[in-house]
Structure prediction request, 505 residues.
Amino acid sequence: MKLVICAGSATTGKTSVLRHVARKLVATGHHLAFLKIDVQYADEDEVFAREFAIPTRKVYSGELCPDHCSVLVLGDALKWAGEAGADILVVETAGLCLRCAPYVDGGLGLMVMEATSGMNLPRKVGPMLSLADIAVVTKIDLVSQAEREVFRARIMEAAPSVRVREVNALYGIGIDPLVDLVLQTPDAPERLLLRGNPPVGTCTICVGKKEIGWQSHFGVVRALDNQNFYRGE
Amino acid sequence: MIKTITILGGEGKADKAEEVQRIDLNMGDVVSIVGPTGSGKTTLINDIELFADGDTPTKRRILINGERPPSVYRDDPSRNPIALITQHTNFLSDLPVRVFLGTHARIRCADGSRADALVAQTLAFANQLTGEPVIPDSRMTELSGGQTRALLIADAAIICNTPIVLLDEVENAGIHRTRALELLRQYRKIFIFVTHDPRIALLSDFRIVMRSGCITRVIHTDAAERTFALTVGCLDDALSRLRDKIRFGKHLEKTDFTELERFTPEREAAFL
Prediction:
């Protein structure tokens, strides 16, 4: 199972980008499953189910931060996607906290940001950008050629090892290289680890336990099929 | 080295095939795209800018030097040979003008020492098109609509220095557009103007006519039309003078119209 994790602030165009990627993957015979992680509202699961007739789910992180929620439910989600017959699991997450990032080792980390968001954004988003494999820049038709170039330079300065791709998510132009990257991604390893170091905190993830799956954590946790529950003494 | 762009026709609204199936634009051409609002003019320049390859709703294809453009044009904006200035292109960056232009100039030219000179040239170009000069220390977002447009055009011509420049309804920009055209003409590029302005259309080598999403005709500016261009220019200048008098807080007088009165239809015929 290939694992693609897409992060980016609200309304940057994550869903538009992923819809184009999904359309191309489904058209070439790949089996996708889609999981949306958001805080309190999302309908992307319905959109993807309707448009591509693929297994989809959503999970609301509620009181948990979405990245934290992603760590807890991702193990279950891979199992669910496998049972649903998928060979690629696409996870779209809100990624609200800029101290950590939801990407895992062995999966593809895709970050979406809009060209309209200001020249300092690449300097502000921290690991969400710097730990991604590729930064996808949307809404390029709304800014000048000059600003596109400066924005790209700012991204490359903040995250030199991250590839940058400008796309027109309206028409789906510039999407093919993203599809190629998904296809080049190896199957996710058995033991999944968060790519970056979590921030300082008091929960098991925040104090640095990187292993994916609620079974590895204690305190207030949740499974894909449950609401939050307590695990521990 | 870019010598030509080719537009291969696709289909317009209701999947109707375009009447014109091929247009070649050569280096140095100044071309206008004309047609009523909603006829697909902006869509056409977007197709050009995106290097459409049958993958946009119009199914058009764009060739550079007769071939499919290399992917690097899309992969790296600073290698893109096209600069597009649309009606809704705006500066969203709140960096000071000098910092922004300096950063852009350093991205575009390998020789960093030329960056300051490019910034100075760009500001000088822009300030010939605006009423009030751009102050280099003001933030990009503080510029007026006209100053923004002037700076976009100057940046495209001088810093981007792309061989192809697409300008969407530059006449709405509130800048000195004849001066813009004169200045741009000094650069050897392919200029494509989406326009409703007869003066810009007549100063073009040819114009592409749009209707219902299709390219329906290509009209070359002939000798007769070039003579009209003078008349249109005089009318336009007269109107500009009126505009400037209003702008600079003056009263209009009867004498302001003596020149315009020469251009009643009968007199215009006689004048020609």
